[in-house]
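Structure tokens please, single chain.
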Amino acid sequence: MHIKILGISGTPVRDGNCDKLVQASLQAAEEIESVETEFITLADKEVAMCQHCQYCIENRADCKIEDDAQPIFESIRQADGVIIGAPTWLRTVAPPILILLSRARSVMFRTHEFRNKVAGAITVGWFGRGMDLAALEILLIESRFMMIPVAQGMATASAVALGKRAGYMEHGALDDQYGMVSVRGVGYRVAEVARMIKYATDAGIVVPPEYQITTSGGTISRKGSQ
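Here you go.
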């Protein structure tokens, strides 16, 4: 049995700290037998902001905007676990990941295809302030899609983490030793729980659809549950 873990780095900076942390978490997950991973960064993607036009809801269809969001959503559908990383800006989560996930309203209210994906959250900051809030924002968004958040990790990219004046560390967030332990822990934990859930699901150990509550309070089996 193979488990697929997808890592999404919600940053505009290619090969920056956020990309590296998500990749480090995926590398940790790969240490577990039968786990394969996929990495996506938003740094080279075109993802438009949701227009809140209600097209997806009124037409019971996917978003009408055609850009890089749809292939990313397909990768989430194919994954057993998802690790979402995003920088901490202004003491909260940076906008790129919010812009991406806001485009998945149809999935949240209509198809429920992200349901039961095991999820983790990673963030990176400069001074270390606001990172708890940013990680919590990611976990809450994952739960809105009925994913199963199980772990969070965070690291700082400046020497302030070492009690020094602010300044870039030689290898950025990778030099935050405690932070890297938590980041790798996200990979281990997401892979662990994803394996258990997949084994249980394949064995038919699930509740009937009429007991599967959606984010809006309906059930999977009820027509118009959104």
